[in-house]
Automatic annotation (TrEMBL):
Residue ranges crossing the lipid bilayer per the database entry: 47-65, 86-104, 116-135
Record key words, sorted: Membrane, Transmembrane, Transmembrane helix
Protein name: Uncharacterized protein
Organism: Roseimicrobium gellanilyticum
């Protein structure tokens, strides 16, 4: 995958996750009718203030990783083949666990089939895609076509 496409996709995943966080804040504060209800955004596994804090910290981390990856240097630029492999394995397991979570939800809550309460699950897929992209190898800058 060309480096510029990879970076664009990393930023797209980050922007989608930011939109999810902002959407949940808008629903929580303003109860906007344009967005799904609160119960669709929040699984309740973590108290919301802690969830919001963790989401904001994750967004900051994603931004730093995106910048380092775009520059091809920095603490979070992944150069190790082993580290890339572990990141892709983690991303695959993470996405796979969301498939299981989705299936479990569909079996235990048939009244919400197919999309009820699944916003958190879909955005975990976005995060898994981001981790996969971080673990991908970009062509070297000398061999990449501009």
């Amino acid at each position: 995958m060309p480096h510029t496409l990879r970076i664009t996709l990393l930023w797209l995943c980050t922007a989608l996750f930011l939109a999810r966080v902002m959407g949940q804040i808008l629903v929580g504060v303003y109860h906007t009718p344009l967005l799904p209800e609160w119960k669709e955004w929040y699984s309740g596994l973590l108290p919301y203030p802690w969830l919001l804090l963790s989401q904001l910290l994750l967004l900051m981390f994603m931004t730093v990783v995106n910048v380092d990856t775009a520059r091809r240097s920095g603490r979070f630029h992944v150069v190790s083949t082993t580290a890339r492999g572990w990141l892709k394995l983690f991303a695959a397991l993470y996405a796979g666990s969301m498939v299981v979570r989705y299936a479990y939800r569909m079996v235990t809550m048939p009244e919400e089939r197919w999309f009820g309460g699944t916003i958190p699950i879909w955005f975990h897929f976005v995060l898994a895609a981001w981790v996969w992209l971080v673990g991908m190898r970009s062509p070297s800058s000398t061999s990449e076509k501009h």
